[in-house]
């Protein structure tokens, strides 16, 4: 059995013990049972808030984790990385197959995850920002490439800088946590499996998103020699050095493993959770339209977060906007009743599910996004997207723009 105290770092920078989670040893089938309970001190704390407002309301109740594959509630697993970062954790601590369960990984990660939560067996966490100086970007890119190609061939010391740079970013692509005088960032590197210049394409897509009116994380494209990386500023760390709590839409919807969800489901969560539902519903509708027009079909639930700060709950800035690099026709999330590329009428019909009642308002939003995405060629050039990549991705974008044109 594993027992961990869960601590929350508040926007002020103060840390408070929120409660404790317990995970039993796996049963003969490998399933894990677990529980979480808020501590009385936290429940009485003036600034206390529920870590998951839908699954873990603030009360004295013992909450069973109905997730036998992990043994903990989804909000806690949100603290862990996905494929890339978990591989780093496994390599760093030489974990066997039976040592890679979620509770063990939380214990090892401790206070180095994204968001406001820390995990300790006893005592209080020593909060420090994971990451290394941005001056090491070139070395980190080289080490990330080496780790992708031969993770078990090199000695531990060879990867020490990569381990030091943190393991918390999600997804399968190489990443690291870095810092400079302006703040803390997720550095996204190219993958050895890339067929396209994904780093430049994502940088360009994020810029297009900003021009379309989407609130995005700050980004900066950095080149060093023949390599590039995209720096994405962390919005879980505020200017005062405190933390903003994050919970994914996947956790809020209890969508463990394979799921069948749509943008309407996210809208319903926002209605129940957001402190600014009208504003967040508008932002979600805008991002859905943009994802359709740019071809961001990898629009899965972990790419949408609810953020909690001193002002309450709100939809986080967009942080993973990538064109259709896999040329997938199906979006992960349904748009209306379908996962396929949507047309103008479908997107217009969806407006009412996002609180947009006036037809002209929906048309204005559609045309604003359409106009911004039409400038993709100039933005791709500005971000040094190779001509052959721009041609192939641009063909897909143009087709999407044609089917979503208000005059078509």
Polypeptide structure, described:
It contains 14 helices and 13 strands. A five-stranded antiparallel beta sheet has the order 4-3-2-1-5. It has a five-stranded mixed beta sheet with strand order 6-7-8-10-9, sandwiched between helices. Strands 11-12-13 form a three-stranded antiparallel beta sheet. The protein folds into three domains: 2-120, no CATH class; 132-196 and 206-233, no CATH class; 245-403, Phosphatidylinositol 3-kinase Catalytic Subunit, Chain A, Domain 5. The longest helix is centred in the C-terminal third of the chain and has 18 residues, at 277-294. By secondary structure, it is an alpha+beta fold. The chain has helices at 40-43, 74-77, 83-93, 102-109, 137-149, 160-164, 198-211, 249-252, 263-273, 277-294, 344-350, 359-373, 376-382, 387-403; strands at 2-9, 15-23, 34-38, 63-65, 117-120, 132-133, 175-180, 183-189, 219-224, 227-233, 245-248, 305-309, 312-315. It is globular.
């Amino acid at each position: 059995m594993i027992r961990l105290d869960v601590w929350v770092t508040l926007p002020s920078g103060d840390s408070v013990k929120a409660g404790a989670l317990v995970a039993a040893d796996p049963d003969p089938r490998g399933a894990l049972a677990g529980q979480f309970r808020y501590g009385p001190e936290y429940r009485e704390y003036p600034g206390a808030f529920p870590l998951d407002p839908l699954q873990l309301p603030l009360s004295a109740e013992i909450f069973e984790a109905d997730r036998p594959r992990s043994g903990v509630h989804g909000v806690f697993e949100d603290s862990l990385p996905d494929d890339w970062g978990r591989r780093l954790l496994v390599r760093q601590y030489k974990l066997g197959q039976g040592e890679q369960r979620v509770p063990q990984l939380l214990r090892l990660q401790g206070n180095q995850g994204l968001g406001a939560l820390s995990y300790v067996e006893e005592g209080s966490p020593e909060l420090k920002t994971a990451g290394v100086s941005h001056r090491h970007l070139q070395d980190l890119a080289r080490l990330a490439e080496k780790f992708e190609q031969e993770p078990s061939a090199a000695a531990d010391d060879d990867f020490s800088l990569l381990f030091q740079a943190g393991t918390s970013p999600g997804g399968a692509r190489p990443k690291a946590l870095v810092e400079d005088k302006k703040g803390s960032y997720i550095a996204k590197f190219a993958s050895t499996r890339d067929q396209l210049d994904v780093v430049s394409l994502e940088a360009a897509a994020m810029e297009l998103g900003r021009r379309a009116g989407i609130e995005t994380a700050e980004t900066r494209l950095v080149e060093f020699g023949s390599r590039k990386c995209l720096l994405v500023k962390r919005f879980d760390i505020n200017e005062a050095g405190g933390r903003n709590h994050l919970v994914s839409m996947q956790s809020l919807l209890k969508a463990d493993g394979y799921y069948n969800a749509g943008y309407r489901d996210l809208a319903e969560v926002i209605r129940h959770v957001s402190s600014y539902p009208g504003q967040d519903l508008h932002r979600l509708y805008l991002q859905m339209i943009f994802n359709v027009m740019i071809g961001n079909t990898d629009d899965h639930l972990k790419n949408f977060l609810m953020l909690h700060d001193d002002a309450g709950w709100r939809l986080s800035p967009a942080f993973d906007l990538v064109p259709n690099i896999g040329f997938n026709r199906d979006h992960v999330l349904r748009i209306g009743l379908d996962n396929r590329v949507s047309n103008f009428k479908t997107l217009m019909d969806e407006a009412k599910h996002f609180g947009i009642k006036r037809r002209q308002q929906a048309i204005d939003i559609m045309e604003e996004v359409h106009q911004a995405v039409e400038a993709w060629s100039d933005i791709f050039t500005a971000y040094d997207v190779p001509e052959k990549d721009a041609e192939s991705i641009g063909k897909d974008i143009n087709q999407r723009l044609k089917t979503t044109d208000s005059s078509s």
